[in-house]
Design a protein that fits this description.
alpha+beta, 6 helices, 64% helix, 15% strand, 3-stranded antiparallel β-sheet, single chain
C-alpha cells in the first residue's frame, strides 16, 4: 500500500505536459486509449437524460367522481366526441381521453377534467 501512496503522490506532482506524455506512454505500452474510454462512456451518459425527459403524455380518466354529467360535458368539449361516445368513455373509465399530447396540454386537460369532478392520471 505504501508503494501505491507514493505513486499517487508522484503523479500529483506532474505538470500537465508531463501527465500528457505519461498518458501517451501508457497508451503505447498497453495499447489502450483514454479517449476511447471517454467516447464509450459519453453516449451512455448523454442518453440517460433523454430517457428521463418525457415529452408525450396520455391523459387517462380514472373516474367521474360522482359528477358523471359534468365530466361527460367536459370530455365532449375536449375531444369533440358525440354524446354517446363521450358517455361510453366516461362509463368505461379508466380510459384515455387524449393520447400523445405535450405536457402543457396534458396538464390543461387534467385541470379541466378535475374541475368537472373527474379523477385523472397522466401517463
Amino acid at each position: 500500500m505504501a508503494d501505491l501512496a507514493k505513486i499517487v503522490e508522484d503523479l500529483s506532482a506532474l505538470t500537465v505536459l508531463e501527465a500528457a506524455e505519461l498518458s501517451k506512454l501508457l497508451e503505447e505500452k498497453w495499447g489502450v486509449s483514454a479517449a476511447a474510454a471517454v467516447a464509450v462512456a459519453g453516449p451512455a451518459a448523454a442518453a440517460a437524460p433523454a430517457a428521463e425527459e418525457k415529452d408525450e403524455f396520455d391523459v387517462v380518466l380514472t373516474g367521474d367522481g360522482g359528477q358523471k354529467i359534468n365530466v361527460i360535458k367536459e370530455v365532449r368539449a375536449i375531444t369533440g366526441l358525440g354524446l354517446g361516445e363521450a358517455k361510453a368513455l366516461v362509463e368505461g373509465a379508466p380510459k384515455a381521453v387524449k393520447e400523445g399530447v405535450n405536457k402543457a396540454e396534458a396538464e390543461d386537460i387534467k385541470k379541466k377534467l378535475e374541475a368537472a369532478g373527474a379523477t385523472v392520471e397522466l401517463k
